[in-house]
Structure formats: C-alpha cells, structure tokens
Amino acid sequence: IKMAGDSRFTDVDTDGSEKSEEMEIVVNVGGVRQVFYGDNLNQYPETRLAELVNCLSGGYDSIFSLCDDYDPGKREFYFDRDPDAFKCIVDVYYFGEIHMKKGICPICFKNEMEFWKVDLKFLDDCCKAHLSEKKEELEEIARRVQLILDDLGVDASESRWKRCQKCIWKFLEKPESSYPARVIAVLSFLFILISSVVMCVGTIPDLQVVDAEGNRMEHPTLDSIETACIGWFTMEYVLRLISSPNKLHFALSFMNIVDVLAILPFYVSLTLTHLGAKLMELSNVQQAVQALRIMRIARIFKLARHSSGLQTLTYALKRSFKELGLLLMYLAVGIFVFSALGYTMEQSHPETLFKSIPQSFWWAIITMTTVGYGDIYPKTTLGKLNAAISFLCGVIAIALPIHPIINNFVRYYNKQRVLETAAKHELELMELNSAEGKATGSRSELEDLSREGKEGPFYSSRIKVSHSDTFIHLLSEEKHYRTRLQSCK
Question: What range(s) does the Ion transport domain occupy (predicted)?
C-alpha cells in the first residue's frame, strides 16, 4: 500500500506551476515508449492522454486512476494495452483521423479507442464498415446460440400444448435436433425428388394412357405416386403452420410461399376437374388444368430448404445485385450497338436475315452470350466482322463481373461456416462450464442472455474457462470480463 508520503511521488507537481501546454510526458504502452507534448494532447481534452497532462497536480490517486503504473523520476506512464492499436489511435492528435492497420481485430480496436477515450467519429469510414460487419457477425453468433439454448431449455410454466407445439416445430424444422428429425428431413428430400421425377416421366408418350375421349393422360400409377407426394407435402406444411411460433411470419416466408405454390395446383386442378365441367366448357377446363400442372415445377425449389448450398447461392446472388446490374448493363449496351450495326451492314445483301433492328436484338443476344443458334447470321463481310467483334466483346462483358460474384459466394459460404463453428464453440464452453459447476443451467443462461442490460452475471460466471485474448462488451454491459462469444471469431 502506497502512503501519501511515499518518496516515489515527491516529484509530482502539486502546485500546477508547470504549464500543461509545455509539459512533456512519456507513455509506455506494452513496452513501446512514446513522447508527447501537452499542446498536442490538449487538442482533445476529453481523451485519456490529455487527462494525463493535468493529473500530476492531483496526486497519485489521480494518476493511478488513469494508468497502470507511474515512474515519477522519468515522468513515464505505463499501460498494459495493445501497442499496435495505440500507434494507430495516436494519429488523431496529428492528423485528426484514425485508420486501423491490417490484421487488427476491429472490435478490439473499438475497445482500445474507448479505453483511450477517443470518439469513434475519428475512425475513417472504411474502418467503420469493417467494424459494423464484425458486429453483425457477433450478433449472429449470439442469435444462433440463443436459438439453440431455447431449444434445449424446458419451461415448466408452459402448457402441455405449448411444449407439444415446440417439439413438433423442432421435429420438422431442425433436423440436427434429433435422429428422428434427420430421418424426416431425408424423407422429405426423397419425396421432393420422387415428385419431380414423376412430373418429368409422366410427359413421356409411351408411358401415357388414352382416355375415353382419345386424349392422352398420365398413367394411373404415376397419378397415385403424385397424390401420395402431395399428401406428404400437405401434412408437412399444415403441421409446420400449426407449430409455428409466429404464423404471420411463417406464411409470408419465401420458402413457405414456394411450398404453397407446389401444393396448390394439385387441389385447384382436382377441383376444376370435378366441378369445373359444370360451370364451363370441357376444353377450357382441360386447358386450365394443364396450365396449373405446369406450376408443379415450383416444388423443385423446395430442395433449397434441405440444401445449404442452394441457400448460400441465393444469399450470394442477393449480395451481388450491383455486379449483376453491371453485367446486364454491359450486355444491353452491346446488344443495342451491335444489332444496329448488323442491321445497317446487312441491308446491302439481297437475302439478308436482318429485317429490323428489334429483330436483330435476338441475333446480338445469342452472339454476345456465345450461344449462336445459327437461325440468324450475317452474310456480308462487314457483317461477319461485326459479329466477330460482338462475341469477343460479349466474352469480355460477361467475364468482368463474374469474379466479384464468385468472391461474394465464397465469402458468404466461408462466413456461414465460421459462424456455425463459433456457435458450436460457445456451446462447448457452456457445457464445460456447467460440468465444472460454474454455470446455472441452460435455461437460466438463456434468460440471462435475453434479459437486456443484465448479461454481466451470465458472462462473469463463465470467465474462468474462457481463454480469449480480446474483450468485447457488444452483447453485455459488463466491461470487466472476457468470453469466447465476445471475442473476434
């Protein structure tokens, strides 16, 4: 315990005689020493370094409230912080803005800025975007962990129907929850494949039968298989709708709309077949039924529910709208230019196939995309030269945006794998903590995680089994503990 008369603090300036603007202080951060002058630091008086200039007159209590240690002989302040991040943060005193170096965790850097009391507004926009992306990843990890804990928890206050509803939802929506749930997911996947194969095989003339009016129709066996598949899809959709915790969100979900489109044509065509003949002509009924049967192709999109690859492709395309727009713009400009040139150059030939510029659009599309059906082709020398240039430009126009689109797909796919692994690691940490008797149980952890502003005790109970070197309070107001969930993944 240091006493007020400790000789180490005899050099502390208690009368404030030295002007803070002319003062020179030495800061040692993680073994890296840097010298600062008061006039530079006082540009931002609310920062920690600026407070160091004025803390000497307050005695050692004031000094040690700002730093970890102090050498009065050298007037050197010691901090056990990241020196690399500190080198970036001090740029604010000289350049008025801060840039993160490559390789520094953005969340850790944000915590360093908060420690040094430097406002985030001085962080450059490019670095803010990286910080926002990392925050979203942490929030996604927390959301996944909370969902898993919610599935594991059992609330005794819930009614029997609520518990049954939750079990059905887990059984149909989360194949990883149990072995029977995985079997149901595989069966659903097989029914989708079978119904798609039956739809295709039913159009083979040799497998069709002729009805009393002489019209071809699908084989009765294929109709029975189709009916069985539709029955499975209907039962699955109804059970998922009944057990859904949010039925409005369930009904408006894209994949659930696809499920309805895959089921509805069967019942509409069945209704028209038995009741429509009384209300309209038989030919009109058959045309309506045939049009509805074409809508059965929507069921192939049900595969996306069981394929993480298709889901990743969908999200990657959503994030690549800008690149896809550039691709369409390049092609649209090329199609317009080369179709107009082709029409003009082919007018001198008596057997020209270019009757108009709109008709030439088709030729330009199949040429620039290197399809080349050959139904329209140039016959003049200039027209052939224009065609050669058009498909070369088409290859370049298509190749330019492809690389960013592929990068978006790979980045999103890798990100999902990282988030899934991070959520599993967090659950393993909870299990380890529970095994050592330091946790309060999965249900109480869920309640603490979801209780806003009260996450501190939850994380503090797990601090002794965490080995993270970073500290993030994004998901907690408690600022003195480090956890893997709060770490940079």
Answer: 182-416
Handedness of CA 278, 284, 288, 294 (dihedral sign): positive
The answer to whether 47 and 96 are in contact (CB under 8 A) is no
Query: Mind giving me the DSSP string for 66-132?
Result: T-SEEETTTTEEEE-S-HHHHHHHTTHHHHS-B-PPTTS-HHHHHHHHHHTT--GGGB-HHHHHHHH
Q: Who wins on pLDDT, 471 or 112? A: 112
pLDDT digits (tens, 9 = 90+) for 258-292: 888 888 878 877 777 666 555 555 555 566 666 66
pLDDT recorded at residue 446: 40
For the stretch 283-335, pLDDT in tens is 555 666 666 666 667 667 777 666 667 777 777 788 888 888 888 998 999 99
State phi, psi for 388 to the nearest 5 degrees: -60, -45
Task: Give the Cβ contact number of residue 64 at 10 Å.
Answer: 14
User: What are the residues whose beta carbons fall under 8 Å from the beta carbon of 23, sequence distance 6 or more?
Assistant: 37, 38, 53
24-147, superfamily in CATH? Answer: Potassium Channel Kv1.1; Chain A (3.30.710.10)
Q: Which CATH superfamily is domain 163-267+295-305 in?
A: Voltage-gated potassium channels. Chain C (1.20.120.350)
d(CA 396, CA 287): 44
Between 181 and 272, whose confidence is greater? 181
- Short-list 64, 81, 67, CA closest to 9: 64
Using DSSP's 3-state secondary structure scheme, residue 477 falls into coil
d(CA 455, CA 467): 19
